[in-house]
Amino acid sequence: MIKVGVIGAGHLGKIHLNIINSSNQNLIGFHDTDFINSKKLSKKYGYKFYNKLDLLLKDIDAAIIVSPTTTHFEIAKKCIEAGKHIFVEKPLTSNSNEAQVINELASKNKIVGQVGFVERYNPALISCNEFIKNPKFIESHRLSDFNPRGTDVSVIMDLMIHDIDIVLKVVNSKVKKINASGVSIISSTPDIANARIEFENGCIANLTSSRISLKKMRKTRIFQKDAYISINFLEKDYKVVRIRGKEPNESDSSIIIKNNIGEEKVIFFEKPEIIEINSIELELNDFFESIKNNSESKVPLRDGLSALEVAEEIMSQL
User: Model pTM?
Assistant: First the structure.
């Protein structure tokens, strides 16, 4: 069993603690700078509380970093220097310079590192991955009602970075150009933002994020040759609409359209069954497997760096 420690016991930290405690890993304990709430948490659930990070690091093999983003760099650096594998919630650090240092340190010290881009493990995305091939246009909307918990960073770092990561993964091409706009409404940093990302392979992604919406929405639409894919991350659902040439004896009951040059095309839908999973549990299990196998994680630290570089370019235009 891997000896695991959690750093940060806020809303998300509690979720990680509960999942690890219920897993076949060895939850050693947790550290948080809020001693009063930490002691209450320890008393209620029996998790061992370490009032000093150095003491926790002496007892563990791997650290789950779920503290505020502004603390990620120093904590991750200390963990790596202590020889501990790290799982860091998104964003990896506050800026790409820090992320670059963490990447280099982890590589130098042969540390397994993973970024908590939990949407990579959304069952809807996992189920439809096989249908995503050479996207030409991607449109994403990630809207949320206001929650002060995430306002230590901009809406780009808080919400949009999920979609930045997904787009970078599915397009798999270098970014050519970015145009963006945004505005601060409640916070001191942007609360609403839109970014248009052009890739060298010709794909264009249009991303919109807001944390002052009246309703929640996490939808991504992917357009590619002969197919349209709609993913609802919030509902963990998706649909694929595909087009193919009409067969000679095609049934009249099929949805048939005729294009501008007279070719008849058939529209059909594909929607395989989605397996219900706990996304956070799955990403943690992948992290632990990578440690056991001494292999690179499925969401490596360099992906966190790539997403930050794009996020910073977006921020520079707001």
Answer: 0.91
